[in-house]
Amino acid sequence: MANSPSGDSMTDRLVRVLETFTPTRTVQTSAEIGRRAGLPSSSAHRIVAELVDAGLLERDESRGIRVGMRLWELATRSSGALRLRQVALPFMERIQARVGEHTQLAILEQDEALFLERLSHPDAVTNITRVAGRLPLNASSSGLVLLAYADPEVRDRVLSGRLIPLTPATITDPATLRRTLGEIRLQGHVVAPGYIEDVSTGLAVPVRNAAGAVVAALSVVLPRDAPTESALAALHRAARDIERAL
Amino acid sequence: MANSPSGDSMTDRLVRVLETFTPTRTVQTSAEIGRRAGLPSSSAHRIVAELVDAGLLERDESRGIRVGMRLWELATRSSGALRLRQVALPFMERIQARVGEHTQLAILEQDEALFLERLSHPDAVTNITRVAGRLPLNASSSGLVLLAYADPEVRDRVLSGRLIPLTPATITDPATLRRTLGEIRLQGHVVAPGYIEDVSTGLAVPVRNAAGAVVAALSVVLPRDAPTESALAALHRAARDIERAL
After folding, report:
1. A134-136 and B200-208 as β-strands: parallel, antiparallel, unpaired?
2. pTM, to two decimals
3. What does the pLDDT look like over A143-191, one tens digit per residue?
4. What range does the domain containing A241 cover?
5. Residue B8: which of B41, B42, B46, B43 has the closest Cα?
6. Tens digits of per-residue pLDDT, B67-95?
7. Angle, CA of A50, A110 and B133, to the nearest 5°
8. Does residue B148 sit in the same domain as residue B52?
9. N or C: lower Cβ tally within 10 Å for chain A?
10. Measured between beta carbons, which residues in chain A are less than 8 angstroms from residue B36?
11. Span B178-191, mean pLDDT?
12. Does Transcription appear among the keywords (chains A, B) (predicted)?
């Protein structure tokens, strides 16, 4: 698309506008969007007006701007990963009915774990995961599984980058992480006690496509001291069921 | 954003590109996208390349173009309607465990019923609904509930437009439809036998926000001749639970 005087493309500007919306910032004014996207005020107003006309953004009663349902619809209806999520959902429900905590499905996206789905019981243990939210590969159980089976170049890039701890238990030493990833490939699952939050343990298994490549991680979150055996068995069984259904 | 020689804005072109992707057409070449979006080939290639760079579209191994996960993530993470879906999900699971067929959540979007969620059992009765798919307001049980409680101007617009039958049972007569909408408001639910498919019956109830406005329809799909009483009771109970949780 045409470039602005500053040289960034219109697509870049659009992405910067959309990126100003977050799970905790769902309504903004045009001026706030412009400031956060680093756009001149007149450009911000024009872009927002066009996106509202197209239904990609929506104006609420008090003139606040929200992400539009039309954008969600266009992004969702033809997405391959969302087909994975739809196939997995009944089996995730079965895990959750049995294990009784959070059940999650994540994929590898730009060197992070992106969560496609999360089922939760109202009285389940605390969990910071959100649908369409992300967690670091070295900290979340889903991330560890995705990293264990990722292309070697992804693994090398993540291992040579900054490994940020979310708790004192998060693995941040590259050698320890590399050894852990080898153990995950050997065992076919991970148990991650307190890596994300002190009070909880994450368990995750890989989900493979017809060609045998790992395309997702299926995980549950348990209280830190809960037994893991029956939850791991439920995860392995569900992963096999999802693979058959794919 | 800057306008092209033909006068359509870059946002219009972007939307036209995204609209070429559908649930049954998830991979296309740049040339196909350009032809379906009505864009000159050089423009189509440039726009697609920019959208791929931004992660909003993705190129697969065989150079086909798909909708990117980044677009889904940006569209989903700050969407208000998806918060509704996340709140409703545990209660929808409970309905489905009890009723054993499809359970769905829909909102009114541009004079159609847009489906935010659908839970299905593998052996459930046939159902043409898709997540992020749409159905006409006069045909689906969800649509009838949404139309019954819509603003009068929406109702007048739909009633004076074309009412397309999906089966011989679909209501297409404006006077009959207006009377049916009145009955829905009186009873607080709808039973729609064979309106969408001959073999199934849809049941739907409204879901209200804290201010009492109807924001969604909660529905189940049953085999055509199944008893409806316990499913209706489960729907009413779940709608109340969702309203309390919102």
Report:
1. unpaired
2. 0.86
3. 999 999 999 999 999 999 999 999 999 999 999 999 999 999 999 999 9
4. 78-245
5. B43
6. 999 999 998 888 877 888 888 998 998 89
7. 50
8. no
9. C
10. none
11. 98
12. yes
Yes or no, beta carbons of B10 and A1 under 8 Å apart = yes
Quick one: average pLDDT of B193-214? 94
DSSP character at residue B126: P
End-to-end Cα distance, chain B: 37
Residue with tokens 């009890």: B98
Rounded CA separation A175/A177 (Å): 5
- Find tokens 């209280």 and name the residue: A223
Each residue's pLDDT tens digit, A44-57: 999 999 999 988 99
Take residue B164 and report the two structure tokens written for it: 């397309």
Q: Among residues 41-70 of chain B, which lie with CB inside 8 Å of chain A?
A: 46-47, 50-51, 53-56, 66-67, 69-70
Average pLDDT of the segment spanning B224-230: 94
**Residues B213 and B239 grouped into a single domain:** yes
Average pLDDT, chain A: 90
CATH assignment at residue A191: 3.30.450.40
Is the CB of residue B184 less than 8 Å from the CB of residue B227? no
Indicate whether B143 and B224 sit together in one domain: yes
Distance CA B165, CA B176 (A): 13
Q: Do A55 and B110 touch (CB under 8 A)?
A: yes
Is residue A4 one of the residues assigned to a domain?
A: no
Is A68 inside a domain boundary? yes
What is the Cα–Cα distance from B145 to B208, expressed in whole angstroms? 12
- For residue A245, what are the contacts with CB-CB under 8 A and spacing of at least 6? A87, A91, B122
CB nearest to B15's CB, from A11, A54, A72: A54
Domain count across chain A: 2
Instruction: Tell me if A11 and B51 make a contact (CB, 8 A cut-off).
Output: yes
Distance between CA atoms of residues B197 and B127, nearest Å: 8
Nearest residue on chain A to B122, judged by CA atoms?
Answer: A90
Name the domain boundary from B75, B104, B123.
B75
Confidence of residue B1 (pLDDT cuts 50, 70, 90): very low
- Residue that has been written with the tokens 């889904």 in this structure: B72
Copy the structure tokens of residue A93. 């429900």
Kindly list the residues from chain A whose CB atom is less than 8 angstroms away from the CB atom of residue B73. Answer: 109, 114, 132, 134
